[in-house]
Design brief:
Blueprint: H1 4-30, H2 35-40, H3 47-74, H4 77-107, H5 112-119, H6 123-155, H7 162-212, H8 215-225, H9 241-257, H10 259-267, H11 271-302, H12 312-320, H13 323-360, H14 367-389, H15 396-407, H16 411-419, H17 425-443, H18 458-477, H19 482-487, H20 489-497
Helix pairs in contact: 1-7, 1-13, 3-6, 3-7, 3-10, 3-11, 3-13, 4-9, 4-10, 4-11, 5-6, 6-7, 6-13, 6-14, 6-15, 6-17, 7-8, 7-11, 7-13, 7-14, 9-15, 10-13, 11-12, 13-14, 15-18, 17-18
């Protein structure tokens, strides 16, 4: 006989999935098959929708399962690190995002490869960046499907297996991304962002007052019984100063350089919208993570021998809160995972279509055909991600971090394109390639670093090598052509002088494009 928990969980998640599919259908009704519309929502997203699609795309299954699992194993040191990396991401959105928007509107850029390949006058660099982002994004999509499978299996007490839950999850995402493109993704993210925030805060307080009669009693108990969990380096000694600093820096940079967030930079209505989102989005995300500390630490006391650390928060909810309430919050966890999976599916389809199909298709291919090709890639990408996910990798945080470390290698060459007149094609090619290579060989254990080196995460060493090589070679060989500099950095300076990036309320229609 099906239990009450399983029935309520299935009903709640089912209603939620029906709502997001309806939003996807609505996005299809109002959208077009224009490339800008399907890939960048017509470059017209306003503050509210962009705020929630930025925030919802940011925290993924990691926010609900990965953070809870990390706290369960390593204590709450991740929360100060998360504040650090969220501030870094906010600054990148404010400073870099507004400049990317200006160039995106002027030149029609949609993907990172568009901008970098154009500035450095190197199709090869554009292809390398695109290939790296595609390769590093698949694990990130897979982590969301892993999260979805865990949520379904835990919430339904095994009535729906991990594999079936992950499959249902990816099918729903494929359908509404296919239908509405970025507009559908952004609309569902707005719903998911509001839902997740409310669900997590209500869950945290509900748990603390039902199980401990309030925050003071909760923290007194935790400090007395589990003091190692509320101090550094944590019970397992994981959060050392080197790990803490490098993890925070690489996560803040890496998330901001992922292709789905880059698409948010070019889809805003104006640079001013991006700056509002940078400010309020950072605050939203910092507040969002706080309740997970209560839930993750609650699992330490209630379930000291969990076989799967990532199930800590769902286990606490179903043990200490009413079934109906826990099921609603679990639906919020589905939202957390789906809001990133859909964005990543859409982003990879944009990379494949924009950077590869368009580059080799006939010159007279029309925009409707390009958009159709992007749509056709969505189910293929979903299947590949599902195959990766059902391998059941052990820990969501580690798999997600690898995706961030790879994406972060774009930052030096992107900053060079936006700010540094001496940035060169040769430096960018060498620096980016070596950054990716160093990150990969360290992360996969091909090379073991000497014990005398600090215990930085692999991507941090890759970023150091990347930056040094990029700067050194660029200083030696000189920068790109004067025409390119004038068309990019000169244009940015001109826009700033007009107040477009320093408080003016410019919109996409106010920017002169190459086609005008």
């Amino acid at each position: 006989m099906v239990s009450l928990q399983t029935t309520v969980a299935l009903a709640t998640i089912g209603v939620y999935l029906a709502i997001v599919l309806a939003l996807g259908y609505r996005g299809w009704q109002v959208g077009t098959l224009d490339v800008d519309d399907w890939m960048a929502a017509g470059r017209g997203l306003g503050i509210v929708v962009l705020l929630f699609t930025f925030a919802a795309s940011y925290h993924s299954a990691f926010a609900f399962l990965g953070v809870g699992g990390f706290v369960y194993a390593n204590g709450i040191g991740i929360f100060s690190a998360s504040t650090f990396y969220l501030v870094i991401s906010g600054l990148i959105l404010w400073i870099v995002g507004s400049r990317v928007w200006l160039l995106g509107k002027k030149h029609g850029y949609i993907t990172p490869s568009d901008l970098l390949g154009d500035f450095y006058e190197s199709p090869l660099l554009g292809k390398l960046v695109s290939l790296a982002l595609i390769a590093f994004t698949f694990p990130y999509i897979a982590t969301q499907l892993i999260g979805g499978g865990i949520i379904f299996e835990t919430a339904t007490q095994g009535a729906i297996s991990f594999e079936v839950g992950a499959a249902l999850f990816v099918v729903a995402g494929v359908i509404y991304v296919w239908l509405g493109g970025l507009r559908a993704v952004a609309w569902t993210d707005a719903l998911q962002g509001v839902f997740m925030f409310g669900a997590m805060w209500i869950a945290g307080w509900f748990f603390v007052f039902s199980a401990y009669r309030g925050p003071q009693a909760f923290w007194t108990e935790v400090v007395r019984e589990f003091g190692a969990y509320v101090s550094l380096p944590g019970p397992a000694g994981t959060i050392t100063p080197a790990f803490y600093i490098s993890f925070a820096i690489m996560t803040g940079i890496g998330v901001s350089m992922t292709p789905h967030l880059f698409l948010r930079y070019v889809s805003a209505r104006s640079p001013r919208v991006l700056k509002w989102v940078a400010a309020f989005g950072t605050g939203y995300l910092i507040l969002f993570y706080l309740p997970t500390a209560f839930l993750g630490l609650g699992a330490v006391q209630a379930f000291p021998d969990l076989a799967q650390a990532d199930s800590a928060i769902p286990m606490v909810l179903y043990e200490f809160t009413p079934v109906w309430f826990a099921s609603i919050v679990v639906a919020g966890a589905v939202a957390a995972a789906m809001s990133t999976a859909d964005s990543q599916l859409h982003a990879v389809s944009a990379l494949l279509t924009r950077d590869w199909y368009e580059a080799y298709a006939a010159e007279d291919v029309d925009e409707e055909t390009v958009t159709r090709v992007a749509q056709y890639t969505i189910p293929v990408l979903g299947v590949i991600s599902y195959v990766i996910a059902i391998q059941q990798f052990e820990f969501i945080l580690l798999l997600t971090a690898l995706s961030f470390y790879g994406a972060a290698q774009q930052l030096p060459i992107l900053l060079g394109a936006l700010f540094w007149p001496r940035a060169s094609r040769e430096g960018a090619l060498a620096g980016f390639s070596l950054g990716i290579a160093v990150t990969a060989v360290i992360e996969f254990g091909v090379v073991t670093l000497p014990a005398v080196l600090p215990g930085f995460v692999s991507g941090f060493y890759g970023l150091l090598v990347n930056t040094v090589v990029f700067v050194a070679i660029s200083l030696a060989v000189g920068g790109v052509s004067e025409d390119t500099l004038e068309d990019t950095q000169g244009y940015i300076d001109y826009a700033i002088s007009r107040g477009w990036e320093t408080g003016g309320d410019v919109t996409a229609g106010d920017v002169t494009t190459d086609d005008d």
